[in-house]
Structure prediction request, 311 residues.
Amino acid sequence: MVSTWEDFYAKHPPPQDLEQNEQALKEFTKKHFEAGNKVVLVTSGGTTVPLEHNTVRFVDNFSAGTRGSVSAEYFLEHGYAVIFMYRIKSLEPFSRHFMGQKFLDLLQLSDNENPVITVLPEYTQKVAIVLRKYREAFDQNKLLQLTFTTLSEYLWLLRSACQALAPLENKAILYLAAAVSDFYIPSNEMSVHKISSTGPPTISLQLVPKILAPLVSLWVPKAFVISFKLETDESLLISKARTALNKYHHNLVIANILQTRKQQVIIVSKENNYVLSLTNEQLNNGNEIEQLIVNDLVEKHAKFIQSKEIS
Prediction:
């Protein structure tokens, strides 16, 4: 059984913090609309599908949030305001450079009664560069971060973000890099409490409605919309990407293979497809494929805006 997107929203209550997030979205987009700025919504990280209302167990989607968090930084460098919508505890712009124990390795502690913490000299330049960019983004109110965990939270927040972005029309980009679950358990079919472990449970999953359809046709019909297609079978990649374009009528699909996603992607448009890639040397030197992706998209978005103004 495939439910419609209207059914999904009707059967799943909005998250408790939705009203607060909607207010933040409204204020952020209004400010940048009035300033004439371009705004990009970057979705990032995976969604969970709870198996119980009082959730102990859930089905998860693989994603560390690398693509989204890195891309958000490059969009900021190009002057975009960024709404970064991400899975709690996945990677975030700027702080991604200092994850986990690596952060403590950058620091040194003076040995006296009034300890002073400083950055080790060999890391000072790197930390200063990242910190300067971070401060600039927030001082200019160019970065709004919103979180989700479950599929339902993601879909509610996505719709609200689209509604806030709609007035920007062709100055808005949707960069849908989150790994969204394809299957879910309807709310009325979930166990209230923890599923018993006395025997193997029988769980019936339903297909998640394809939100790209109302997003492109109803919510942000004038925006520049990019979706992602991740596959493990290279022979299916381009055909699946092109099928999505033909079905949902958005602007681009960024197609990638799981094993090579950090080194190569294929940009698929209605007209053609082409590869963006890093050499092994570039990869080893710390270059990021997201810089090539964002550079390409910024150029395409400028042409998109120009074509709409002419028409």
Q: What stands out?
A: The chain has one domain: 5-97+138-310.
